[in-house]
Amino acid sequence: MAEIGLGYGSEFQLMRFLGHHRNYLNRIIQDSLKNEGVIEWLDFPVNENRCSGDGEWKGIGCFKGHLANYEEINKKWKDFWPQSGSSMNWDGVFKIGDIWFFVEAKAHREESFQRCCASSERSFKIIRKSLQRTQEELTGSSTVDWINTNCYQLANRLAFIYFCKECGIKAKLVYIGFINGYRRKKDEVQSVEEWMGIWKEEMETLGLNIEEMSPYISFVHPDCLNPQYK
Q1: d(Cα 214, Cα 46) in Å, to the nearest integer?
Q2: What distance in Å separates the CA atoms of residue 175 and residue 91, rounded to the nearest whole number?
Q3: How many folded domains does the chain comprise?
Q4: Is residue 225 in some structural domain?
C-alpha cells in the first residue's frame, strides 16, 4: 500500500472529503444509489507501519465484530480467495441500514488498470475459479479470462460482491472518481464524461454492459475544485 499523497491523489481526496465535505459526499452518494438512508462510515483500522497511523479494510475484515456468523463467513472466504499475499484493500466501507457498501476511490486513469500479481500457481487457480464463478453469475458465461486482463482489480471487486451475495450479505461497490483530484493536469480526470468513459472501457474489457451492472456497482464523481451540492 502506497503512502498517502500530500494534497493530491485518491486517498488524500477521500480523507479530505470525509473530513471537510462529508455532507456533500454523502449527498452525491445517496443520489447515485437512489437511497436516502443514513450513511454510516466505518472508522479505518490502525496501521502503525504507515506515516498516517491508519490502514485500510482488507477482504472481509470489516465484518468481524459486526456479523454474528463471521466465523462461518471466514471459513467460506478461505475457500473462495487465497489467504497468502494481499486481499482486496478497500478505500472506504459504509453501511445504509443492512446494506454494505465497499468504496474504490480513483484520482487518475491509470489507477483503474491493474493486472493480477498472484505469486503462486495455487493462488492463481483459486482466483481464476472464483472469477469464473462470478462471471457466470453476472453474464451466464465465462468467455473472457478475467484474470489475464488489465482490469483485474474491477474483476476481483465484483467477485467479492458475488461472494457476499452467496453468504446472504447485501453488498454493493461504490466507485468514486475524483474530478480534478490529482493536481497534475496531464494525469487527472477533468469531467464526469471522462470518468464514465474509463468505467465503460473497464466493463467492456470484462465483457460486461455497464448499465446492466447497476445492481452491483454505482459511480460517484466529486469535483475537488468545487465541492458544492447542486
Answers
A1: 32
A2: 10
A3: 1
A4: no
Q: How far is CA 129 from the centre of its chain?
A: 20
Nearest-CA neighbor of 211 among 196, 190, 194, 221?
A: 196
Mean pLDDT of 12-33: 95
Contact 32, 174 (CB under 8 A): yes
Domain range enclosing 131: 10-180+200-206
Cell, residue 152: 483485474
Taking residues 160-167, report their average pLDDT.
98
2 within domain boundaries: no
How far apart are the C-alpha atoms of 24 and 16, rounded to whole Å? 12
Kindly tell me if the per-residue pLDDT of 2 is higher than 60. Answer: no
Report CA 141 to chain centroid distance, whole Å. Answer: 23
pLDDT average, residue stretch 160-182 = 95
Q: What is the CA radius of gyration of the chain?
A: 17
